[in-house]
Queue: 4 jobs
Job 1
Amino acid sequence: MTKENILFMGTVRHAKAQEAELAAKYNIYYAGSTRELLEEQLKNAKRQGLTFKALYRGYASHYTLGRVDGPLLGLFSPGLELISSVGAGYDFVDVVVATRNKQWVTNTPGVVDDATADATILLMLSTLRRYYEIEYAMRNGLTPTQKPRIGRDPTNMTLGIVGLGGIGKAVAKRALSLGMKVIYYNRRPISIPSSPSENTTEKEYSFLRDVEYVASLDQLLQTADVVSIHVPLSPETHHLFGKDQFLKMKQGSYLINTSRGPVVDEEALVQALESGHLAGAGLDVYENEPKVHPKLLKNMNVALMPHLGAFTIETITKMETLSMKNIDLYFSTGSLLTPVNNFNKKGTLP
């Protein structure tokens, strides 16, 4: 029986056992270390009649190999059916082109929720308490006459969550434990059952009653002391936060972003910070990654992380495992655990 071929973009960092299981069943090929080498590899494969049925897009592979975009997909021989991408976000794959090509795209939602929520709270507390400034001063010889600026307590503050999905919910639960009031904005409110049920545990039921839905983004911006963004990047969410939105936020409020950089207009954010309208920001993602706006780097009211919200051994292992399970399941049964797109009217796999 002929084995199916899989192309791996990027290395498997931690889920080595799952990789070995996949290699025992299928032929795994590894992409070159640069975009140029990858493109040449695909051209050679096409000349040789080698078809890849699945593409595994590894964690952070876009930094060296670029996006799985239209031009790259055009280099594959006919027969590519699945693009299995590591990460909750799927903007590193051109889903529109893949769908047009009748190629399935999967991501790894859910398994990143806790680590990303922890990073969000870390950035929020660091921003409120100016931890990064204090550590910087200590490492550079803080003396008794060089007192750090005083911080703020999160207790009794209002946290506004934009996008109460898996990560947003995980952030909300952590914020409630800090004594914060939590409000959220989605395109539609999450339905709250009249009582705990088989589908809603007592704990989840209590949580849903503890968070408050607001009817518009403007209302959230005008109410929250801290705004935390948890939406996917799409044409609709690109620059969702710009000059107008920052002006609507409360004087002295804070912005936290662990979703995607282009959701925020960085130049407008810089202006809101430099004017003093915003008291601070905590960022894990940037509009032009890996580049960071130079004025954000210089601003000591901003806590910075280099897109490492899910960067833990446990979470990367779970993401890689789920991504490879999608490939194995598709090859063996034709079904998927976490599909992103859908090109069948009935919403089922062919």
Job 2
Amino acid sequence: MLENFWYAVELSHEVGTKPTPLRLLGHDYVLYRDSHGMVIALDNQCAHRGASLALGWVEGNCLRCPYHGWSYETNGQCSHIPADAAGTPIPKRARVQSYPVQEKYGLVWIFVGSQDLPADRRPPIPDFPQFEAPVRPATYSRHEFAAHFTRTMENAIDTSHALFMHKGAIGASNAPQNTEIDDYEVTVSDYELAASLPIKVNRLNGVMRFVLQQDDPEAHKTYRFALPNVTYSAVQFDRYKIESIMVHIPVDDETTVVKSVNIRNFLNQVPGLGHWLDGNTAQVGNKIMQEDDVVVKTQVPQIAPYQDMRQELLVASDATLIAYRKLLKRYSVPSVLPEAVLPLEQTAG
């Protein structure tokens, strides 16, 4: 499902000259940096005997297999077979598939799908300009869910569960009282959706209570989903904002690794306090994901039923989920991609 998209698959700082294994949608890849610092993505199994290239090492621009020493160029072509005599032609089949790679927002993205698809027909990487050069280096969170990525993504844009699931991490509420969600607008484009809703908490917990000194009746949260595996949240209290890009890495049907990149617009120039807040932000992010995992992994069916909305009973407060499932259904067949990348603004209520 969801082929011919740029998947966010790893944090940039976690990829170096030591090969990094990556399992995505049940397929094994290997990532590494060449001599120019560029991230290279190849199939992980050596063309010779199927050994894991991630157990090998990098020599210049090449990746050498640990089993028999076959060396692969950045385009996946084998350039050296140590056991063959000098001058022996290298078989044409001595190659592994390579994949297009980009780095943006502190993340590594690889294009998964038809390598023959023209660049102008590849859906774009979502736009997050505020993450290009943040005032302070981002913080990061990680959690492994025992759930399908369609479930973890829709959980991230679910607008009504936080007052029940995250009282400890976010703040006190009167749930199940004062939890009504007014009708809200979901903005939908070719590959994305977004919505913004008030935050209904009576008393904030953690660092935001320290910063604000009092609750903000105008506090709100922005939700965003971008195909194929990215969600975004921005929590705004008064003039203070915390933003997170969450990438839902679909390891297989039962496992999703969620990694987040987090930035804020306050306390960025106070060394000691800023460092403490970095740790607190990561800690709260991890706590929220741990709380979500307890419930998300119990959902049936395992894959969000985007092909048939009638399998679950969605209501008005689930407007983001309805739009999300429509996007999944639309693009679950690669042939529906437009002839070229289209403008992104279109609004649906």
Job 3
Amino acid sequence: MKKFTLGDVCQKASSNIAQKDLLERTGKYPVFGASGFIKNIDFYHQKEEYIAIVKDGSGIGRTMLLPAYSSVIGTMQYLIPTKKYDIDIRYLYYAILYMNLSKYYSGSAIPHIYFRDYKIEPINIPCINKQKKISKKLNSIDVLIELRKKQLLKLDILVKSRFIEMFGDPITNNLGWEQAELCEATNKIGSGATPRGGKVSYSKEGIALIRSMNVHNGRFEYKDLAHITDEQARRLDNVIVEEDDVFINITGASVSRSCIVPKDVLPARVNQHVAIIRCISNKLHPIFANIMFLHDRFKKYLLDIGENGGATRQAITKQQLEALTVILPPIDLQNQFASFVQQVDKSK
């Protein structure tokens, strides 16, 4: 097996395609952006399969394997294997995915990465047959992952459908349930703070510090979970996380995302971007509350509050959370729904 750098085995090429220039163009050749397929147009840049990297803006470092006779817009760049070495394009793609090129970002207003910086990444190049064997196995894993994602999506849709069937629209309250402000059905609503020193003060282990990047729609993301010392945690004793607490992101682009705390991250605290919602057990079930927050109409309601809540960024205040009008069906019915959700979760 030979060792090279990324710059040894591929070369970069740029795109001058602006998305605004595509409005009037139609055709049969796909063009891609940072989020994937944009549209078909009447020309192409690459006549062979290639790798594309997001080099500017949101999603920098994201890597895609794209088809022949297609193009990317100018916020991305092409990586083309050199003819000097016998390289399987799919092997190269998976190798670059592993490199995590986003770590080379620079710039604060609009982040970007440069080939001149990340081309130093080391890469092992086995014989072509071994490359193809490795890439085939990884591709099979990708297929299974995509299939699993589709299954999970169907289960999420099933839960949302059951919620609507049992409780109707939580905003219009078309089934006429009792209503109350959220503060009347909870015994805690509050957010924390970032320890002095920010990221550099975090520990490799200790008390979990839950941030907005950990709170996703209906799920907890363990990646980049921070930890703080016992002393730092004592300064955040007003936001001690308890079992069955519901989280809502209250600032930034992820505002309104919500999930329930997993037991295995306790003990924990939250920072200032995440609010704890602690339900009163005989009024509001946490599973019911979380699915209600995730309901399309309720989420739009939260997003609208967030859009109007900050001068420079989206924000929901504690007072706005406390004043949210929520439906309160009989707790026995909420418990029945929660049991259904827990059974569905066993299939995940």
Job 4
Amino acid sequence: MLEQNERIEDRVERSVLTGVRNRWWCIGPSAMVGNQPVGIKRLGVALVAWRDTGGKVNLIEDICPHRGAPLSMGRLEDGKLSCRYHGVEVSGEGVVTAVPAYPQCAYVGKKMVRSYPVVEHFQGLWAWFGEDEDTEPLPLVFPREYESADWTGFPISMTWQTNYQYMWDNVLDIMHPEYLHKDTQYFESGVANQVLVTPTDTGFTVRREISKGDNVELMEFIDTGAFWFRIGYNAPPECGPGGNWRVFPLATPIDEHTCQITIWRMRNVAGWEADLFRFMFNTKLEHFNWEIVQEDKDILEGMPPWPMQEKLYQHDVGLARLRRHVRDVVRKQLESRERMRTGAEA
């Protein structure tokens, strides 16, 4: 049985609050990690990231196994991290490689700090957060826009003072753009008969039926080893070549009150058209996009602490479907873990 005096639904909510395990999470853009160790917090865990001599990003818990000092305050020595307090050296695998003050120390050669697998791709960093260090990572399957040479784009990243679930809900709330963003960017308005959720092989899409045409092409949730959100909206010719925009807004929990937002803006262009898109975005379009992001940030940071009291209606079917999916994932993880535990005790 599960822990006494604690319902499984309470455990599910507690697990979701700071991030689902056994998934890849975007920890930020590639530019976040340079030639010095950087301390970050993701999914409630204090971490330190750095690049070794070959440029590979390492990620381990930000705690020295000797006295608990933050390794993010340390120095890099030949691609390994040296604690500033007493010089204990730790590799990217979390193995103590040297104790300069006491070379014969029994800790040398032992793995003493948890490490996290990292994938770097399309100017972004993804880390695997398993239930424990021995959990084998799932394959990380990127959306097609991240894999095709026919698409170009770039990320921005920022910290928001709100639970990441508010951002997730916002992405699949297809009715909010025409109200929240009506003063900054044009979105087709009209009375929506209903919001439609359509299952896909990897998640679902959200669309709306309105009395006029709709320039919000789609909102989509994808679960392929990581949680992805794809927004497509129609762009007028004045926005340059490439047709419709694709936006991938990814929110990763820092803790239960704060999250890291990393957003990719993409268009189906390559070669000189990709250069033109970047030029037009930087000189003409960027301030419109930042205004939209700021409006989302302001409204979500003003929300009460998660969870809030709500009264949902039909237009909230997309976010309701998302919440159910995520909680089903966690519930299955907890039940699987409980079966393994009771089987081991039998």
